[in-house]
Amino acid sequence: MSNKMWGGRFATGPSEIMEEINASIGFDKQLYAQDIQGSKAHCRMLAQTGIITHDDAEAILHGLDTITSEIENGSFEFSRQLEDIHMNIEARLTEIVGPAAGRLHTARSRNDQVATDFRLYVRDTVDTLIEQIVSLQQALTRKAAAHADTIMPGFTHLQSAQPVTFGHHCLAYVEMLDRDRSRFADARRRMNENPLGAAALAGTSFPIDRDATTQMLSFDRPCANSLDAVSDRDFVMESLSVASICAMHLSRLAEELVIWASAQFKFVKLSDSFSTGSSIMPQKRNPDAAELVRGKVGRIIGALNTLLIVMKGLPLTYSKDMQEDKEPAFDAFRNLSLCLAAMTGMVDDLEPNEEILKDAAMAGFSTATDLADWLVRELGMPFRDAHHVTGQIVARAEALDCDLDAVPLADMQAVEPAITQAIFEVLGVENSVRSRTSFGGTAPENVKQQAEKWRIALEQAATTG
Ligand code: ARG
Prior knowledge:
Blueprint: H1 16-22, H2 25-28, H3 32-48, H4 54-72, H5 85-97, H6 110-146, E1 151-156, E2 159-165, H7 166-191, E3 193-194, H8 210-216, E4 221-222, H9 226-231, H10 234-260, E5 268-269, H11 288-312, H12 326-349, E6 351-352, H13 354-362, H14 368-379, H15 383-400, H16 409-415, H17 429-435, H18 444-464
Bound molecules: arginine (ARG).
C-alpha cells in the first residue's frame, strides 16, 4: 500500500529497507510536545485569518490535546510506516476528528514544521542548561566562600608554581561557566526566530499571519527568508558549539578531581555517592563520575562535528540529510545536562584536605617569587637580577634539602649581603597568598569579596532565569 500522507502518485509502498532508512519516529518522537505546540499555534492562526473555520479549529485543537495525553500516558501507538512524529500525530488526529484534521496542514509543510519543532526544542533545552549551569556555579561559589583561605598549591605545567587559595581555584570555574551561560543566552537570542509559515520553501499564497504564530510561540520575529527558514540549522550547531566548550570546561574540572582524589595527591575526598569500588581490589575508591564527565565530552564535540559535516555540502533548501541532525543533538544535550548535574553533586560533596593542601603548597619552593619580589621592593633590585639571586638561594635550599623559609639568613647573605631578617616575613605560604591583593588575585580577602559578589549575582540569575 502506498503512503497515506504523500502516496498519491505511488503505486506501491516502500521496501522494508527504505522504510527503515527513512523513518525517524524512533527518535523524533521526543519532539512531540513541540510538534503539538507548533500545530496548535498554526491551527489558531488559520482560524483567525479565516483560512479554516473556527469549528474545524476547535475540533483540531481538542484532538491535539487528546493526542498529548495519549502520548504522555503511554497509550499512543507510534508507527514506523508513518515515518516521523509529524505524520504520526496527523494520522492519529484524522482518526480522532475525521477529515477536518486534513485542514491543519494548509499553508504548512513538514519542512517548516520540523524547523519550528527543533528550534522550540533547542530553545527549551538551552533554557534548562542555563539553569543547570547556574546551580553548578552556586555550588562552586559555596565551596569558594567556605575555603577562601584554604591554601593549596597553584600549578603551571602541573608543577608547583605559587600558593593560591582553594576558593580562588573554585571561582576560576565560576568565571568559565559564566561565559558558557552568556554564550547560551546569546545563541538563544539569535535562534529565536519563527520558521513557521515558510511552508515547503517558498512561502504560501494563503493569507497567513506569521506575526500571530510568532507571538503564540514566543519567538521574537518571523524568519525573514523562507528558503533560509527551512534550510537553517545554525541554531543547533551554535548551541552544540557552546555545549562543547562547556563540556570541555567540565572535563578540565573532572580531570583535576581525578588527580586530586588519587592516593598520591589526596587533595580532596569525593563523597561515596560519587565514587565506586572495584570488584577485585577492595581498597579502591574510583572517581567514576568525574571520569565519565571527562569522557562524555567526546560525544558532545562529536555531535557538533556530525552536524557540521552533514550540513556542509547541502544545497538550499531542505534535504533529507537534515533528518540526521536530531540524534546527535539529543544525545549531546542530554549528556551535557547529566554532566552538569553530576558535577554539581560532586562539588557540593567535595571535601578539601586542608592539611595536605597546605603541605603541598609549601613544597617546591613555591614562595620563590615572593622572595624575588621582596628583593625588588626592599632593595630596589631590578626584577631580572632579583630572579637570578633567588635562583641561587633556591639552589642553596635544594642542597640543604629544606624549604625556602628554613634557609639560614647567613646562607642568603652569602648570595646577597643586603638581605635582612625581614625577608622571612614573605616566605610563608600564608603571607604569600595574603599579599596577592591585586584585582583578580588570590588573597583570601579578594576571594571572600568575589564569592559574595557571585552569591548575590547567581541568586538573582536563579530567580529571574
Ligand atoms: N522527519 C523529517 C526530518 O526530521 C521531517 C521533514 C521531512 N520533510 C520532507 N520534505 N520529507 O527532517
